[in-house]
Structure formats: C-alpha cells, structure tokens
Amino acid sequence: MSILNIFLSGTQRTNRGHLASIVKIARSNDKLSREEITLLKKIKADLGISDLVFRSIIRKPEQYPLNPPLSYEERIERLYALANMLHVDKESYDLSLKLLEKLAVGIGFPIKTHQEVVKTAVELAASNADLETFAKAVRKANESKE
User: Fold this and answer.
1) Cα–Cα distance measured from residue 123 to residue 121, given in angstroms and rounded to the nearest whole number
2) 119: CB partners within 8 A, 6+ apart
3) Taking CA 105 as the corner, what is the angle to CA 67 and CA 91, rounded to the nearest 5 degrees?
4) What are the CA-CA distances from residue 86 to residues 7, 103, 121, 131, 145 (Å)?
5) Close Cβ partners of 101 (under 8 Å, ≥ 6 residues apart)
6) Backbone angles phi, psi at 70, to 5 degrees
C-alpha cells in the first residue's frame, strides 16, 4: 500500500478508485490522448485529487481498488464519467466497452441489466447528454429487465 493511501477518508478512497477506473479505460490502448488527459484533469479537479496523487494514479491505476458508491445517484454519476471517457477513447472502443461493462457491475449495477445500462450510457455519452438526461435514461434501462 502506498503512503498516499494510509490516512484516507472513505470519500477520498472512493474518489481515487473511481479516477483509477477511468484511467484504466483511457489506457486500454496503452496510451493517453490529449483529449483523455484533458478529461482526466477535469475529473481530478472535480474529485479534489492532488497533482501528486493524480500522477501516481496515471502511472499505476491498478494500485487503486474500485470502491463502489453507496447510493444509486452516485453510481449513475460514476457511470456518466466512465461512459464519457469511453466516448473520448475511440481507438480502443471495443476493449474499453468490455472494461466498462465490468466496471458497471463493479459499481453496483445488476448483472441482469448491466449490458442494457452500458449500451444506454454509451449512446448518451456519444450524444453529449447532460447528467440529468443521462440519469433518467439509465434508471429506465436498469429497470427494463427487473
């Protein structure tokens, strides 16, 4: 365990794990584009992650475990960020899509509905939907097979 992770609150740990998940999608083609770096920096700022921790996450995202969010709203927000990263990373779309499906289950979407949820999320990210529109559609997709 890194010294950076010893005295973390639950929120800090969750935010770092979330950013690491997004980095994994971005790095699925073994490189980061300018657009991906720009989006990662925006997410870093939104999550309140320092530059030092950000560099550590970029170098070794596998050292930061995925900590699923507790609330349904937080799951949708996480999926929104993940789907937007997939939309940016066009080169390795198929590999990133498979990783996004795994991460959707990891953050708490049911196995029965995760593929429909991811399909909806990707379509909405491609159309630059706002978070409110995204959340409504994902809720509907998640309920579709329950």
Assistant:
1) 6
2) 141
3) 95
4) 31, 12, 10, 16, 24
5) 114, 115, 118
6) -80, -40
Cα atoms in the Cβ-side hemisphere of radius 13 Å centred on 19: 28
Residue 49: CB atoms within 10 Å: 20
Percent of the chain with pLDDT over 90: 33
| Sign for the pseudo-dihedral over CA of 47, 48, 54, 57 | negative
Reported as a single tens digit per residue, the pLDDT across 94-133 is 777 887 888 888 888 999 999 999 999 999 988 999 999 9
All structural domains of the chain with their residue ranges: 7-63, 72-143
pTM passes above 0.85? no
Give the pLDDT confidence of 19-50 residue by residue, as tens digits: 998 888 888 778 888 888 888 898 898 889 99
